[in-house]
Design goal:
The radius of gyration is 14 Å and the shape is elongated. It has a five-stranded antiparallel sheet with strand order 1-2-3-4-5, with no helix packed on it. The chain has strands at residues 3-10, 13-20, 23-31, 37-46, 53-60. The chain is 0% helix and 65% strand. The chain has one domain. The chain contains no helices and five strands. A hairpin with a 2-residue loop joins β1 (3-10) and β2 (13-20). By secondary structure, it is mainly β.
């Protein structure tokens, strides 16, 4: 299986694009303006899927909630 990965800085976000024979996985990492949280958006697109699957995960900086 062939896999092509490209990572780049787009504005203030890190974007990782993985392309393979039957689909694509994109990851986008962004910091909130105050730097207290990081948001990762994962988008998965494969073959016969009618819509991409999008998963958004929010991480809090250690000690930020104290």
């Amino acid at each position: 299986m062939k896999l092509e990965t490209v990572a780049e800085l787009k504005g203030s976000a890190i974007v990782i694009e993985e392309k393979m024979e039957r689909g694509k996985i994109d990851r986008k990492f962004e910091l909130s303006p105050d730097g207290a949280t990081m948001i990762m958006t994962l988008t998965v697109k494969f073959g016969r899927m009618k819509e991409p699957v999008v998963i958004r995960t929010v991480y809090e900086k250690a000690g930020a909630a104290d």
